[in-house]
Amino acid sequence: MTNLSIDYSLILAGILFVLGLIGVLARRNIVFMLLSVEIMLNAAGIAFVAAGARWHQPDGQVMVLFLLTMAAVEVSVGLALVLRMHQQLSTLDADAASNMRG
Amino acid sequence: MDIIFILAALVAVGSTVMVITRLNAIHALLYLITSLLAVAVIFYVLGAPFIAALEVIIYAGAIMVLFVFVVMMLNLGPHAEQDERRLFQPGMLIGPGILALILLALTFYALVLPRATVGTGMIPPQEVGIALYGPYMIGVELSSFLLLAGLVGGYHLARRIPGLTRVQR
Asked: What is the distance between the alpha carbons of residues B139 and B128, in angstroms, rounded to a whole number?
């Protein structure tokens, strides 16, 4: 395995994170917003693994394991909220849920 | 290894761009699965074979299947794409895009300063496991709390309410 500059991995993580950020900011469909959050979590995982490989420590990979757990929980609760919203408001438009009435 | 990394990175970025610009949720999901598989390749190149396998099994497998299930359950019908076209005009990408690209440029500027290389070998799953059940034991236990909270929360939020009145739109 050749030496790979850590810059490449961090640049890739930065690009993916920013793409996810643009997705969260620009999309109004709540399913796409959740997908964009997943992209951002994944980008953070790349940064963790790259940092772990840089210092040759397993800690980066341990953090990605916790990140996976957190992503799974976040998706299950988030999708439950999506189902509830679709049931109650008949739309996936995030702006439709802006009035704090039950 | 360099060429593999660059190809996988290009695939990941390209498919991620497709994810955030699709109108059909299923198309976006399929592109996101491609992106996750490319990221798994990158994890392997970075010397993390265990995480690469977990990325394919948990992310591309379990989590994306959950998304597909929910999109199917929502049963959006033929009007979904027209609705989405109303909700998402490409012009909406401009403002957030410029601001986010400024942040990305700042990140790149910070990366210009240090020079470091990624280590020369794989970190075997044994080391990850030893670290996970050694100094990070409390994190594992907290993860189980988090999963339980997610289970209860998901069940509570997604249950059908019998006499629910829909908001008329």
From this structure: 14
- Domain containing residue B58: CATH number: 1.20.120.1200
Q: Is residue B117 part of a domain?
A: no
Residues 22-81 of A with CB under 8 A from B: 22-23, 25-29, 31-32, 34-36, 38-39, 42, 45-46, 49-50, 52-62, 64-66, 68-77, 79-81
Q: What is the model's pTM?
A: 0.85
Which range of residues forms the domain containing residue B136? Answer: 124-159
SS3 A73: helix
pLDDT tens per residue across span B89-139: 777 778 878 888 887 887 777 777 666 566 567 888 888 888 888 899 999
Map tokens 């790259």 to a residue: A50
ipTM: 0.89
Q: Is A29 helix (H, G, I), strand (E, B) or coil?
A: strand
In contact, B25 and B71? CB cutoff 8 Å: yes
CATH number of A6-94: 1.10.287.3510
CA distance B60 to chain A (A): 11
User: Does pLDDT of A73 surpass 90?
Assistant: yes
Closest-CA distance, B82 to chain A, in angstroms, reads: 13
